[in-house]
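Hey all, sorry for the wall of text incoming. These are the two entities for the joint prediction.
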Amino acid sequence: MSQKITIEPVTRVEGHGKVTIYLDDHGNVRESRLHIVEFRGFERFVQGRPYWEAPVLVQRLCGICPVSHHLAAAKALDVIVGAGTGDGLTAVGEKMRRLMHYGQFFQSHVLHFFHLSSPDFLFGIDADPAIRNIIGVIQENRELAVQGVMMRKFGQEVIRLTAGKKVHGTGAIPGGINKNLSIAERDELLKGPDPLNADKMVDWSVAALDFFKSYHKNNQKLVDEFAVFPSNHFSLVRKDGALDLYHGVLRAVDTDGKKILHDVDYQDYDQFIEEEVKNWSYMKFPYLKEFGKEYGWYRVGPLARLNTIDFIPTPLAQKAFEEFKAYTNGKPNNMTLHYHWARLIETLHSAEVIRDLLNDPELQNDDLTVKGIKKHRGVGLIEAPRGTLFHHYEVNDDDQITLCNLIVSTTNNNEPMNLAVNLTANAFMNGQREITEGMMNAVEVAIRAYDPCLSCATHALGKMPLELTLIDNKNIIIDRKNK
Amino acid sequence: MNKDIKVLIYGYGNPGRQDDALGNEMVNKITAWVEENQIKNIEVDSNYQLNIEDAEKISTKDVVVFVDATQEDENREFLFTHLESSPDKLEFTMHAVSPEYVLHVCHDLFKKSPKTCLLAIKGYEWDFQEGLSDNAKLNLEQAFQFLTRKLEAYIDTDIHYPISMLK
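and here's what came out:
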């Protein structure tokens, strides 16, 4: 009897999704699909609204990474108000945004590592779910758990002090920012009581990276062989090839490291990117036009970024990057679980950048905005924690938004996440008639490596039941489990 | 009022999703109330959702009231409950942990157990808009009147029903 196994929603990813695994008559995996519900209505919702509202409005999209949407929208609107295409702001304008952005990166990556992934590393992916969570981490390694909590808190404080508030921040506005960083605010982050200061965050980021490397050393086979597949890699890079999470040009490399998108201006992104619609998913499948649907899809996010860049412009992260690159002899790294390694290198880089920025006196400048000749089209790109985020707006003479197109990070990773699920399902479920917790979690581990954000901005009490449904080939539910 | 007791009112939700902002709106009202009455031992905070670092925040308080919107399909405007810490209340995504879970982490990690309550206010509309629905505004006002009365004496019972259900 062929079966359809549905895992819904995926646990410990941001938001929720549904995995369906189709087994054939022999119990082998015939096909698998990751279904994600995406709020496509938002692009229509903002039409007709004044463009200057967009950086705040877009935060309605997601309570997980509102800062990324806030900044991507602001960058697009910089173009519209004539403030240049990413490098035309005042020094304080750009640096305050960078501080906000790297604060967001820091707290997001920390959440992912300490609270979503570290349970898998500490206890193994097939461990009892009763201990494979943050409570288990507290009992097994209290110091690690405390570090995770305090690092998150520090990142949130960076956001609060740069965005003005934690919810629906208004720090970035078209053409710049609406506040600088006062000396008192700077000192709160730079010289805060132990452990809430920038130096400690750098130290702890190094320790987190060491923790992963130790796990890797002891579990090399799993980390190196789990859901490995070749792909293209895509990200922003600084014009000189450095890692830059805020601004740059678009670069893609193939699985051998050959450049296939040559540092192009993202204002022209629609000349290079196309999105495919599949009838079984609400989420589109982006690909590079030149290479078509079959060969043009790509990965984004931490692993992709470290595969596209030439170097990291902070010393400790650069040293870690050199070790990372040496592991694959300088070739692109296609090992899914190495996303975690890359994410922790970026965490360290973010901590270093935050510390450097806090020591920069230009953060106290008062020239907050610039304006120029208005344009009717603007594209803002940013590297969000989960990958490249596109915001594209067009406005009319009355300053109303007439077009909005968003390609979010998780959408960019749609095809590789599906591939990772398929590989994992084949490795763990072929020939199995019963789905164990370990098997279910293996699929989730594959998805979780990409740190997907599955658009779940509303979370009121009573939502999001966890349900596992088993359906046979006649669409009859033969089993259902709730967590 | 006992000035030695540190109280935190923590509302959470997404103000861009209509009634999901009930917790945030309660914080706005409590902030105004605290300022108007020059109350010095009540702190307020709000965010999109609770998260793991909130365990550290509540570890510095004696009394904590979480305020959230609820979709529970029950005929009450709000529900006020005393919370017990629970590791089982881990939600399915770590981006939004439950108040019971925050309390549990607070106890395990920081060895503190503040008296903690949840004020769940019923909402009705959840679209991409700012501003509460009319019915949610009514519920918010009732919950506000209730909460401010409770705060006068602090929290001393396990379960309180809304005004409409009191005998």
